[in-house]
Amino acid sequence: MADPTLYNMSAGYSPGLGVPDWLNKGDNAWQMISATLVGMQSVPGLVILYGSIVKKKWAVNSAFMALYAYAAVWLCWVTWGYKMSFGHKLLPFWGKAGPALEHGFLLAQAALPQTMHFHHNGTMEATAIMPAYPMASMVYFQCVFAAITLILLAGSLLGRMNFIAWMIFVPLWLTFSYTIGAFSIWGGGFLFHWGVMDYSGGYVIHLSSGVAGFTAAYWVGPRSTKDRERFPPNNVLLMLTGAGLLWMGWAGFNGGDPYSANVDSSLAVLNTNICAATSLLVWTCLDVIFFKKPSVIGAVQGMITGLVCITPGAGLVQGWAAIVMGIVSGSIPWFTMMVVHKRSRLLQQVDDTLGVFHTHAVAGFLGGATTGLFAHPSLCTLFLPVSNSKGAFYGSGMQFVRQVVGALFIISWNVVVTSLVCLAVRFIVPLRMPDDELTIGDDAVHGEEAYALWGDGEKYDSTKHGGWYSDNDMHHNKAPSGVTQNV
């Protein structure tokens, strides 16, 4: 039982129970479940997907990049990142930095102070967002979104980025790029009050990570020539496990953004699955038509583009619109990846390992644009602070313009800031691994390999890392009890 002395009793806490009058247990439970689902998309979801979709020699490095980013974002988020994204305004696009660690702050009712919206004449149009659960739940929910953004960005850099450079890059990019987009569109910044629609991160997360990943890939440089020519996944079935966690976790990704377990949350989850399934099927059909074979990797790409595309409008569009968005997301990114990419000198020059530009930047922009077309006015009233919000299909062509302008801001900011961050990191350490590490892979970078198979090109240096299983030990020393030696 909680100690009642820990709480401010005048704020409405029931003695000894930790249940204030404003707390809605259902909303709080759903918000924490949603946050956990999004967290599981990253760990273990994308950790597994990245570790299995890459060439075997990069399995450990790729998975570790995702794991490190998830951990690093957590510490940065509670120390300064949350308030820069959702706190009080410093600039029209940025909040004031500060810690989110003190129990008085975390146990108070959640509030986004800059989201109070006013009419042009100065009268209040919408109150500030104040969900019926504690700030701790809000900090948790928003943190896992920030973390997955960095992990998605990493997909463009797999197979060659210096891990030390990545360790420095993550907190810098989170601070100077992610927090800007989050505050501008979600936290009460200028795009929020202008009425740009981004239900759950099509711009803040996916467009941002796709553009930033592509930009960072330019500065880091390409993989080795051998890896660019042949980069087969080391475990397709395990890749599908990671992809499945990603899809199922999207129920929390989009279902948690109304900040309540309400009817709009249910619609968002349903639309998410409709769009993802449609997009997967369209992508697979295109593979069959043009390449004569259905590709499971292609199906995963189609699934991802569908999930990304619906994200800006998951709770704002009707079911038929989700199908249309699935058709769009399963075809246009397929075309940019399979046709445009092979004909564009710029796209060929930049080594975007997993095609994050196509699956997240292109699909995220399409989602934002189509939301500007199909957002239903009655659904907008359930979520948006700006009255009379609606898509162009329902008579507001200006909403489509807002969506395009919002996308251009996110694109331009990420190109500039990501470039500056990469240049800053390059002054400290090289962005790209040296050639000898690129040749060997995980064993050279981490002294570890994903699959311990003897005689499989092992370069493990036992004098540096230790271990009973060096060549010398194998011939002269007895293996530990219970372990069979195979020489």
From TrEMBL:
Family annotation (PROSITE patterns): AMMONIUM_TRANSP
Gene3D superfamilies given in the database record: Ammonium transporter AmtB like domains
Domain of life: Eukaryota
InterPro entries per UniProt: Ammonium/urea_transptr (IPR029020), Ammonium_transpt (IPR001905), Ammonium_transpt_CS (IPR018047), NH4_transpt_AmtB-like_dom (IPR024041)
Role, per record: Involved in ammonium transport.
A GO CC term attached to the entry: plasma membrane
A Pfam entry, by short name: Ammonium_transp
SUPFAM superfamilies found in the cross-reference section: Ammonium transporter
Membrane spanning residue stretches: 29-51, 63-82, 139-158, 165-191, 203-221, 233-253, 265-289, 296-314, 320-340, 361-384, 404-429
Domain Ammonium transporter AmtB-like as annotated: residue spans: 29-451
Name of this protein: Ammonium transporter
UniProt record similarity statement: Belongs to the ammonia transporter channel (TC 1.A.11.2) family.
Gene name per UniProt: gb04072
PANTHER family noted in UniProt: AMMONIUM TRANSPORTER MEP2
Keyword annotations of the record: Ammonia transport, Membrane, Transmembrane, Transmembrane helix, Transport
Compartments, record wording: Cell membrane; Membrane
Membrane topology: Multi-pass membrane protein
A GO molecular-function descriptor: ammonium channel activity
